[in-house]
Amino acid sequence: MIDFKVFVDALVKGTPWAILIAGIGAIWQLVYVYSRDKIRDKQAVSQMALEEKKFEHQKLLESIKFEYEQRRWREQLGLQLALKHVDARLEEYAKAWSYIEAVAKHRIDDGRLSAEFTKEVASNIKSWRYAKGGLLAEETTRDAAYALQRALWEYSGTTEDYKRIRSARWLFREALRADTGLGEDMTGQTIFDATEKRQRICKELRALQNKLGISPNAESA
């Protein structure tokens, strides 16, 4: 701090004006230096605070960028896996589609639908269920496949038996279409996307399972 007592004592003792002016100049120089240092200190503190804020903001931006890149990578990976899944399903479901064609209505009209033939198709569906096709299928689709397998295996040539085959065939076909994302209408809505349609297919499947003596909670053979 500046000692003004020295300045006052000089005036009292009659110190020459030149010396007093020099003293005043020195005092103002000290005041200036002191004020300048105080301002610089404040500026340094402000600059440091600004740099800290810039660092925190940059850190936040980097964190947001990382999370965005991570989410985008996961989405891209999920999309790639989904596309591979659909491709694999299309390949395996094409095999199942041939089993559906094998019990088309024209075969019974032509007299080609025998108990021996339906058992052979039932065996093929069983093999499909325990191969890649069944592994890729949704639970409802696997249940529908087993229902068709059971209906085919129990076919004895009666009209009632064939009705059960036709019902199981329709359910299995619709389940396969839904698994591959094929829509039932122009909006692309599938039976698994629309709640009422999903409930319908499950309800009809349960009714067919009851007729075939299949327990919904029991592990299929």
Secondary structure: elements and pairs:
Layout: H1 4-12, H2 17-102, H3 105-109, H4 115-129, H5 132-136, H6 139-153, H7 159-179, H8 195-212
Describe the 3D structure.
The chain has 221 residues and is an all-alpha fold. The chain has two domains: 4-67; 85-212. 79% of the residues lie in helices and 0% in strands. It contains eight helices and no strands. α2 packs antiparallel against α4 (115-129) and α4 (115-129) runs antiparallel to α6. It starts with a helix and ends in a 9-residue tail after the last helix. The model has no long low-confidence stretch (mean pLDDT 75).
In total, the number of strands is: 0
User: How far apart, in Å, are the first and last alpha carbons?
Assistant: 98 Å
Q: Return Rg in Å.
A: 43 Å
Q: How many separate domains make up the residues? A: 2
